Amino acid sequence: MKALSCADAQGRPGREPLRPDVSKSHLNELPTELILSIFSFLELKPYITSHAVCKLWQRLLPHAEIHPIRRRMLQLYHHMLQAPKFLETRPWLLENLQPFDRQAYIEGLLDQYSDIPEEFQLWVLEWPEKMAVLGIWPGLPLVRFNASTTQTYEGVNWMAYINPLLLALVYNKGSPDIKDNLTPALLIWKTSEHSHWLLFDQDVPELFGRVLLTTYPESPAFYPTLEMYGDDDMPFFVEDFPDWISYLKHRWDAGLKTCPPSYAYANLTDRIKFPVSYQFSSFNGQVLPSPPWTDRQRSGFLEDIRRLLLRLNGGG
């Protein structure tokens, strides 16, 4: 078929000029119920940008029945924008954002475990990269921040590891089989004192999708529980969040309250060197404290766990 030229499109003498299909209805002419139904299928970023299309859309969008997790992400998005210090949190992030394949990131996790917490999955796929919370984002350099500021926390953003890597977190389930006392977890952030974990364990429903912030002098690769100690002698600190969105909101609010204002950028000479070493229970924020989930049955690692559990149970 011959391509239509500009002259044809504008009309030539003796020809009827081409006209747009005037019978086609504009979206705004559709019934309100149908417009709201269309809006309900929007992903987060199109939903956000649609507010700027016209006043009618701006008025209707809040009434669309969007996915409840998208609704919570939208609430977090607006909560962040309303912070007086919001602009102070952006410079380093905007200068260092790197492209990454969001779908490949999710598929990489699914290659290691059969399911992903839904809040985390939608966040990876749809969250605007320029709205990352204080350095927590896969598309940023893997560096160690030497101090906490309004731009990032002190420590290492382990989400920026080359490929997403589930680790084997020790969780004492009381089983005599060492392998049963492990839970798959994604290391999110790590300092010399704190470890932040997103749990993937479907076999323990109360753990799946939770986020733990642990400070435990015995081992950063161990999830301590209250049952291990009396109320007066707990040698650890644990903050427990029911899901990924709750964790992000906490990190945002806590960071703006406690971190001093600063425009000092991270020293990028502190980039983590590859290949990253594994040292079981290491407090060094720049090494992995436990091995990959897919290597959890390695004999040397199982022996490390056996010794740790024996020591924690008072056996030496």
TrEMBL record:
Lineage start: Eukaryota, Fungi, Dikarya, Basidiomycota, Agaricomycotina
Full protein name: F-box domain-containing protein
Record-annotated F-box domain positions: 24-73
Transmembrane annotation, as ranges: none
Pfam families: F-box-like (PF12937)
InterPro entries to which the protein is assigned, alphabetical: F-box-like_dom_sf, F-box_dom
Positions of the UniProt region annotated as Disordered: 1-23
Chain intervals with Basic and acidic residues compositional bias: 13-23
Gene source species: Agrocybe pediades
Organism domain of life: Eukaryota
